Structures are given as C-alpha cells and as structure tokens.
C-alpha cells in the first residue's frame, strides 16, 4: 500500500503539532516536510515538544513543493498565509486540506474556481470536529422551524479571526434554510457599539475570547414560550483530528473544492 505523502504548514502551532501527533499514529500517511515562517533547514525532530520526524522545515513554499513530491498539504496557519499556501498548492497539483479559518467569500470563490480549473481536490473545513459538524447540521434543521436565532461562539484568546469560521459557516447553513429576517425590536439601538453582536442577514453572532477556553459554540433558537439551544464543546484539539484524517483520505478522490466536512460525511 502506498502512503499518502503529507506536508504540514504550521507544525509548531496548537493544531499543527496535534496534526503531527495524529500522522505519527497512521500507517497510511507519511510526513515528508513542514512549512513554517522560520527555522529554515531545521528538522522537526530538533523540536522537543514535537514528534520525532526526521523531516525538513521549509520557509519558502515554492522551494518546498519543488524539493519534495507531496500528495497533500495540510494547512493550519493564519488567514493570510493559509490562503496563499492553498493557492500555491493548487497550482502545483498538491491537494490542500485546510483548517485555517478567516478566508473572505471572495477568496473562497477564487480558490473554488482555481480548483475547478485545475481539476484538483481541495477540502476547506472551518471545523474538523465531527460533533461540531453535527451541531451545524442540527442547527440548519432547527432553523426550518425556529427562524429567530443567535450564535454565541467562545474561543481561547490567541484566536486571530472573529467571528469564528464555524460561526460563519453555521450562519450560512441557517441562511440556506430560513427566509431573510430582521431580529429583535425594529427600533432597538446600541448604546455601546457592538452590544448586539455581528449581523449576518439579521442573525446575530457573539464572539467571546478568554484564556482557558478551547472552541465552543451555542446556537440559540427562540420562539413563543420556548428556547432551543444546540451546543458543542471541543475541550482538546484531539477532537479535530478524526476530521483531518478523514479529509486527507477523501481529498485524494476529489477533483473540486469542498467547503465544509458535512459534504464528505456519509
Ligand atoms: N478547522 C478546524 O477544525 C480548526 C481550525 N483552526 C484554525 O487553524 C488555524 C491555526 O490555529 P492554531 O493552531 O490554534 O494557531 P497557532 O497560532 O497555535 O498556530 C499557527 C501556526 O502557524 C504558523 N505560521 C504562521 N505563519 C506561517 C507561515 N507563513 N508559514 C507556515 N506557518 C506559519 C505559526 O508559527 C504557528 O505555529 C487558525 O486559523 C484556526 O482558526 C483551529 C482549530 C480547529
Ligand atoms: O481557532 C480555533 O481554535 C478554532 N478555529 C475554528 C473556527 O474558527 O471555527 C474551529 C474551531 O472553532 C477552533
């Protein structure tokens, strides 16, 4: 059985290091290089906190792609570099599996078009935790009966993007199910800017950032005399790894871009 050859971008990060630990446990995956913004020429094994992989760290993506023969790029970096890495990987015919969040709609469209033009598989998943994917699907279903909804997402205070990719994706899924709707009192006024949260088509998204949190979301639906709350918690980043592995396996069979893990779950 030939192994899927993987590059991980962001190996020293919270998610990237967890992805290395996941890859170490798989018989059918091989880590062949890492991409970082520093430590050019060092080996992953030189970092005590990382698994003992004898593979090189590159800081130049083109140099990396030319030096090694990769099947998949797993990107867990920042919105700016995640987008650049994904675009470059598609051009090189390397299949991106992207967990990085914070891409704009325009960037997602551009990557979708590029993948189609190249006929190459890409998976961009705002959340790899299977429980979170189900939470989003349940929320979409509930929106059919409860059009009034607010999303509360809570994350660690090192997170760069707000709202979270998961909250944005949840709002998009709900939008597919409900008619556009303004919520709250028609004359409501914020006496402190931002009090009512971000607005997506009348839906409010509230973002909390605190030390101690990992990744949590509540989708709260309201109707006459009742509330329904759909809630998911990731307490550890291991929660995302089943989805990362699933996406690596699946991306090898795709020839277009898929946005959201729900589209590859059977
Ligand atoms: N889809 C999902 O299930 C999940 C997605 N995320 C997303 O993944 C991304 C990473 O999250 P964390 O690991 O928590 O962040 P982190 O800050 O711990 O790690 C990011 C890593 O990227 C590296 N980096 C920065 N610029 C780079 C570049 N030019 N080339 C290569 N590496 C570079 C940094 O050195 C850092 O080690 C974020 O966008 C976050 O929202 C996080 C958790 C789950
Ligand atoms: O930055 C994080 O931590 C997470 N980011 C993703 C998001 O923006 O939704 C997924 C998960 O919530 C953790």
UniProtKB/TrEMBL annotation:
Compositional bias segments (type: Basic and acidic residues): 176-191
Amino acids binding (S)-2,3,4,5-tetrahydrodipicolinate: 156, 165-166
Residues covered by region (Disordered): 176-196
Pfam families reported in the protein's UniProt record: DapB_C (PF05173), DapB_N (PF01113)
Keyword hit for Amino-acid biosynthesis: yes
Pathway: Amino-acid biosynthesis; L-lysine biosynthesis via DAP pathway; (S)-tetrahydrodipicolinate from L-aspartate: step 4/4
Keyword list, A-Z: Amino-acid biosynthesis, Cytoplasm, Diaminopimelate biosynthesis, Lysine biosynthesis, NAD, NADP, Oxidoreductase
Positions that bind NAD(+): 10-15, 99-101, 125-128
Presence of the UniProt keyword Glycoprotein in the record: no
Subunit structure: Homotetramer.
Recorded family membership: Belongs to the DapB family.
NCBIfam families per record: dapB
Name of the protein in its database record: 4-hydroxy-tetrahydrodipicolinate reductase
Organism expressing this protein natively: Gracilibacillus caseinilyticus
Gene that specifies this protein: dapB
């Amino acid at each position: 059985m030939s192994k899927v050859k993987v590059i991980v971008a962001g190996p020293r990060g919270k998610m990237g290091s967890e992805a290395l630990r996941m890859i170490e446990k798989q018989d059918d995956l091989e880590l062949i290089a890492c991409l970082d913004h520093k430590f050019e020429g060092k080996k992953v094994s030189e970092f005590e906190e990382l698994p003992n992989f004898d593979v090189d760290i590159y800081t130049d993506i083109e140099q990396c792609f030319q030096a090694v023969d990769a099947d998949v790029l797993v990107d867990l970096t920042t919105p700016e570099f995640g987008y650049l890495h994904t675009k470059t990987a598609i051009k090189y015919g390397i299949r991106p599996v992207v967990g990085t969040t914070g891409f704009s709609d325009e960037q997602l469209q551009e990557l979708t078009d590029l993948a189609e033009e190249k006929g190459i598989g890409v998976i961009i998943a705002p959340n790899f935790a299977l429980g979170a994917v189900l939470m989003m699907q349940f929320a979409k279903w509930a929106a059919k009966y409860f059009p009034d909804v607010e999303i509360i997402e809570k994350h660690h205070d090192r997170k760069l993007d707000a709202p979270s990719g998961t909250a944005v994706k949840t709002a998009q899924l709900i939008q597919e199910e409900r008619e556009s709707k303004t919520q709250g009192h028609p004359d409501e006024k914020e006496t402190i800017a931002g009090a009512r949260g971000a607005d997506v088509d009348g839906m409010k998204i509230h973002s909390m950032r605190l030390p101690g949190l990992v990744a949590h979301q509540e989708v709260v639906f309201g109707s006459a005399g009742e509330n329904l709350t759909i809630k998911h918690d990731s307490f550890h980043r291991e929660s995302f790894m089943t989805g990362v592995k699933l996406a690596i396996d699946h991306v090898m069979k795709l020839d277009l871009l898929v946005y959201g893990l729900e589209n590859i779950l059977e």
